[in-house]
Amino acid sequence: MEEKKQGAASSSSKGISRRGFIRGAGLSTAGSVLMTSEVFAFEYEEEKGTELGPDATTIQMKVNGKVRSLSVEPRTTLAAALRDHLELTGTKVVCDRGSCSACTVYVDGQPVNSCMMSVFDVGNKEVTTIEGIAMNGDLHPVQQAFIEHDASQCGYCTPGMVMSCAHLLENNSNPTLEDVKKATRGNLCRCGTYPHVFKATLAAAKKSS
Predict the structure, then answer these.
(1) What is the SS3 assignment for 197?
(2) Burial profile 20-50: b = 16 or more Cβ within 10 angstroms, e = fewer
(3) How far is CA 5 from the centre of its chain?
(4) pLDDT digits (tens, 9 = 90+) for 105-156
(5) Per residue in 59-99, pLDDT tens?
(6) Strand order of the sheet with strand 66-72?
(7) What is the CA radius of gyration of the chain?
(8) How many domains does the chain contain in total?
(9) Cα separations (Å) of 207 from 34, 55, 141, 201?
(10) Residues 6 or more apart in contact with residue 130 via CB below 8 angstroms
(11) 66-72 and 57-63 as β-strands: parallel, antiparallel, unpaired?
């Protein structure tokens, strides 16, 4: 008997019993659930907005300086709207998941992957495509340099590459090779024409300066 009492006292002095641990864990879990529920209830706010679909909706979008009307379904991406509805097929869709940047266009002057953007998110912003960077019928200096330096092979990545490089020169008139590499780091070329792309962009910068 004395040994059992000593054993019980020893186990209680060492820590909590198994039954006590399970009971405490259950209470802690219940408390966490209640606290989490209260937090979610406090933070949740119902979003209010215009519901679209399932039928097509007519919208207006400013593209390459002109306001265009098009009827599109809610699932339509900017790339699909440009290619399928406005017939601006210079914008290419290759990976269709934002990995290759072949579909690069400008939205209010900033490069975006148009395959990842809903056409309804454009709103009042202006879209510029590869067809819109030429001025008065003359090719953009980057476009001309791409031709002169043979910077395209299959051509699928070329529009996105040109858009990325042209955006670089608009913001940096005297880029280094590292600047060009950084500007095109998201553009993938399966043909491997990167060296020609870099040379063309640096050449275009020299002509523009």
Answers:
(1) helix
(2) eeeeeeeeeeeeeeeeeeeeeeeeeeeeeee
(3) 68
(4) 999 999 999 999 999 999 999 999 999 999 888 999 999 999 999 999 999 9
(5) 999 999 999 999 999 999 999 999 999 999 999 999 999 99
(6) 66-72, 57-63, 126-128, 104-107, 110-113
(7) 30
(8) 3
(9) 67, 49, 8, 10
(10) 90, 91, 105, 159, 162, 163
(11) antiparallel
Does residue 178 share a domain with residue 148? yes
* Residue 204 burial (CB count, 10 A): 25
Place of tokens 């330096």: 149
Last residue in a domain, options 106, 132, 158:
132
Segments in the chain forming alpha helices (H) = 2-14, 18-43, 78-80, 141-148, 158-171, 177-183, 194-208
Give the strand pairing for 126-128 and 57-63. parallel
Terminal-residue alpha carbon distance, the chain: 99
Q: Tell whether pTM > 0.90.
A: no
Name the residue with tokens 């529920």: 37
78 and 97 housed in the same domain: yes
Report the C-alpha gap between 183 and 129 in whole angstroms: 17
Full residue range of the structural domain in which residue 113 is found: 60-132
When pLDDT is cut at 50, 70 and 90, the band that residue 11 belongs to is: very low
